[in-house]
Amino acid sequence: MILSLVFFTFSFVFYLVTSLLYIGHWIFKKKWIGQTATAMAFVALLSTTMILIARAGESGHAPFSNLWESMMLFVWATNAGYLILEYKHKFRAIGAFVMGLEFIAMISASLLPYRFKSAEPLNPALQNKWHWLMDVLRPFGLEKYAIGWLDFHVFTTFIGYAGFAISFGLSLIYLLKERSEANGTKGGIMGAFPEARIIDELSYRAIAWGFPFLATGIVSGAVWANYAWGSYWSWDPKETWSLITWFIYAAYLHARVTRGWRGKRAAYISVAGFLAVIFLYWGVSFVLPGLHAYAS
Amino acid sequence: MQDKVKEGGGRPWYRVAGSKIWYFFNSLKLTLFVLITLAVVSIFGTVVEQNLPVEEYLQKYGEKWTSFILTARLHDMYHSYWFLALLAMLALNIIVCTFERFPPKWKALLNHKSEKFDARLIEKFANHHTFDVAASPEAVKERVVNAFRKKKYDIITSGGGGEFRLYAWKGRIGRLGSDFTHISLLLILLGAIVGSFAGYKDFRAVFVGGEMSVPKADFRLKLDKFWIDYYDSGQIKQYNSLLTVIEDGKEVMKKQIWVNEPLYYKGIRFYQSSYGTAWNRVSEAEIAVQTKGRTEHGEPMLVKWETLTPLAGTKYSVKLIGYAGDFAYDEGTNQVFSKSAESNNPAIHLEIYDGDKLISTPWLFLKYPGIFPAIPNADEDLVFTGYKGIMYSGISINKDPGTNIVWAGSIVMGFGFILAFFVYHRRVWVVVRESGRSTEVKLGGMINKNNLVFEKELKEIVESISSEKARG
Predict the structure, then answer these.
(1) Within chain B, how many helices (H) and strands (E) appear?
(2) Which of A230, B158, B159, B334 is deepest in the core (most CB within 10 A)?
(3) ipTM field
């Protein structure tokens, strides 16, 4: 029970330091600050991984079952996704926004009341393991580590959220950068960022990751619900909001690919989409009742 | 007949209308409109709580808004005709767009090699490079071929001598990703529709030891056992039922089911969905004899369900024939029933015999002993002092022949996503020309998405062509 919260405290500090370093790199444009920031982001990722591992040990199941655990998964996925993006495209200043968002997520997680943080055993409706996987693992005596629909459903959904979060950060940068480019300002505070058209493309790439994963999360949830309870879809608020979010990003992709909506318009849809994600994730839990309400 | 033919090029009116409808649904503007509309209206359904009794809407929203909610069917929005119409429009939109776009795309992808290409177009591409290499055309040609092979492109070459052309491509199949994804959505929808029309849902509460019938099937189920597992902390871990399938009088299968682990037999799934104490049956009741007008009674005796039991110390025997957990009486039909599943007002129904003669069939109430005399014209009275309930397990039944279609759809969707988002169709054209003592290379191309990756890749290719090292 304690260990995961200890790692959380460390991670909290790491994310604070990482965000500050990225912001420092953005403002002062010093390479060594950026390199340190990347190194710290790795440390933070490692520490978040330890939170998840420790929590899995404490609760006896994959750590995806309450709001706090899911926040840790969100932070983990966003961090990992960002580091892949940074490694592939070598744009560091973006980290100021993405890591800033992660630090905000850490603050929100720390503010949760204890009952959303504690390690609880799974309730009957959530206990699911894949038989075929248990059969595969049984000869090695590892069948209790088999995963199931819950793990797959939550994990894919959160990769989706992470993609949208990164795209949101990039869209904000785009909107700022676009304005400074329109004003003809070179250098200055926005000078550390790559050209607007590249940010736009990256933001699209992040959605291109988020969208299929969210869809996989939704479909796996429906397939699981049908397997376990006999109905695919019941218009539970969470289900409905996931669909709303999915519709928004589907509109984004169709508008972009077929009608050439890029730049500002695309950025606004991405921001709207992420607001829907926030409501889907937090709003539904606290405001609307239903099966998925973490805060019941 | 003449009047049915209108202007549209002499075509009959239904073909004109048909093609108008077709082109209405072949529109991406429609797609965007429907997607955004669905997103916005779906919000209403989460704000206005669904399927409440009318009084609650009146209380929450007042008369005016309630009548609006009811007219617009916002209280059951996701099943309203207009919401379903929006979904149907999206489905039609997908179908028409697939029909309209897929065949030409397929053809173009198959015949892409025979496309004529004008070398002057190379410079029109967003991604193009022109550069000189200090080597012979033959050597440059080899480098170009190697560079594209190394990046896993397929290539065809043409020309020779002073001018050499190359066309390189990869990831053609990625173009089909969107079609696969759209078809998968239709498959999932089809599966859901097949399931809701060809299948059924039902529910049975079955007592431990009892049997349940299965609608439209030639087998029955017996509930051998129901139990609840707890964690050490006292929280509920799992609800379990042990079920036996009985077919032609024989036990053919036994399975323990729990939440998340249904029994599957002959296309029908049985789910653990609830449990409780029976409201219309007990396994045994305690009955005591008391003298009318007194409050103290004798030692209670156990009476088993539907078993004739002599009452010690009296000339009577009783048989327990009925139970109601929450006693209620319907004057219209003259019937007793339990008005809820809770044991709010437990009552038992007895047959009382004097020897072989049935003399009375009273209801006795646990909470109101002696309210009605059990035996008319006698000094003794009977009181109901306790009972042992019986557990039932609530089993949901679902026959869903569409499940396999939905599964197939999900797999196609995964495949479609991989193609659509992670396989990019790249095409590059190269012209190598002798120009004096060096060789000029013109290279340009396009990618269907993810231009950043392509930019980088082309730069790498250009580098490996111009540098000596990349030769091997």
Answers:
(1) 8, 21
(2) A230
(3) 0.87
